[in-house]
Amino acid sequence: MTRLFDVSFAFLGLLFLSPVLLVLWVIGWLDNRSPLFKQERVGFNQAPFVLVKFRTMRVDTASMATHLVDAAVVTPFGRFLRCTKLDELPQLWNVLRGDMSLVGPRPCLFNQQELVTYRAAMGVFNVRPGITGLAQIQGIDMSTPELLAKTDAQMLASLGLAAYFRYIVLTVLGKGAGDRVRKGE
Question: Which residues are bridge partners to 101 per DSSP?
Fold first, then answer.
């Protein structure tokens, strides 16, 4: 049932938000000549997929977990995108393709072995990863792998339609802080 909502909302979101997506793409192109960021992530049943977001960091930034990256690599436009969570909008394409759900555990990188291990043990990879979920609205990010995996498992154990819509609404209303980046040194 949630897949039907995922596809419907992703399609409508891409359709109605296309002017916003276009404006953000143009500003991103002017900002760094590479407005989209693509990265291989761990998906359903630990299968790889390519996640698409608006770029928030300099093009030459190493591919690693956000909490390990220095804040100095985040561009001024990237800070705006992160603060408003608009950097996540291109993931509607991932939802439409079936790589992701609107609600589910945030997809991690394959090199985040500790998180991958915890999530595998707790059955978190038995569902599609999501754009938002319980951990995101509670401000829990990938810097605390065990807590994140436990929170993801807790969410999945009680995820019904009411919770699905609640997480979406709370995310749209700005609940949660997003992934942290290290403060500049």
Answer: 130
Query: Going along the chain, which residue ranges are E strands?
Result: 36-42, 48-54, 101-103, 130-132
Helix residue spans in 33-67 (DSSP H):
none
Q: Enter the pTM of the model.
A: 0.91
Question: What's CA 64's distance to the chain center, in Å?
Answer: 14
CA 73 to chain centre: 19
What is d(CA 152, CA 109) in angstroms, rounded to the nearest whole number?
16
Name the stretches of the chain with pLDDT < 50: 182, 185
Structure tokens at 85: 């969570």
* Pairwise CA distance, residues 155 & 166, whole Å: 12
- pLDDT at 62 (0 to 100): 80
- Can you tell me the distance from the alpha carbon of 16 to that of 21, in angstroms, rounded to the nearest whole number? 10
Contact between 91 and 131 under an 8 Å Cβ cutoff? The reply is yes
Structure tokens at 28: 């991103």
Tell which residue, 96, 51, 54, 94, has the closest CA to residue 75.
54
